[in-house]
Amino acid sequence: MQIAIDGPASAGKSTIAKLVAKKLGFIYCDTGAMYRTVTYMALKDQLPLDDESAIMQHLAKMVIRFAPGETEQRVFMNDEDVTLAIREPDVTNNVSQVSALPRVRTELVKRQRDIAATHDIVMDGRDIGTTVLPNAALKIFMVASVTERAKRRYKENVQKGITTPLATLESEIAERDRKDSHRAVSPLRQASDAIRIDTTNMSIDEVVARILTLVAETK
Ligand code: C5P
Q1: Residue 124: partners with Cβ closer than 8 Å, 6 or more residues away
Q2: Complex ipTM above 0.90?
Q3: Residue 125 Cβ < 6 Å to ligand 1
Q4: Which segments of the protein form a coiled coil according to its record (predicted)?
């Protein structure tokens, strides 16, 4: 069974997707982490972010791997644990540029489909219901107000020691939404058969319960 969860930045997709996957015994695939890892690599290797050929050459040699960790799933770029590095502001603020590159998307979509081919899966991102898994049994489009999303991101950041002010986060989130929704290839949009959930005034438990009900109705 495939469950697709899409939506704008910081709408709570990964938190919810992880919990739903755990409850169902499915694997969880964070496709945003894959685009972030490519962005991290390009910044680290000092590649111009519009040099698609150079990025593709490096990506061809790069394995992106998810592995269980003590508290949360870890992300590896080859043998380097990049779990924390890919959440840093320089990656966050450049990822939309890299994720708009058509050949990068083609390559990562292929890898995402390979992961989904052999497992029951909850996959989250921007184009899962529209492009990666168009036949997913359940598609969720998760939204929340920009103000609420910035507040959530702020709280998360404080725990990680990242000190970006709330107002800056709000404008960064709005800008990332704008770029992700307006790119030429697989822009962020709700699939026609996706169910929209506005989490602005919902607790995490409420959202998880709602999705589990939808899963039960789908089976
Ligand atoms: O989900 P997260 O916020 O970590 O995603 C980071 C970025 O990766 C998004 O802002 C978007 O540019 C890109 N992305 C994408 N397609 C996906 C998942 C993420 O373009 N399926």
Answers
A1: 4, 5, 6, 13, 14, 17, 28, 29, 30, 31, 32
A2: yes
A3: yes
A4: none
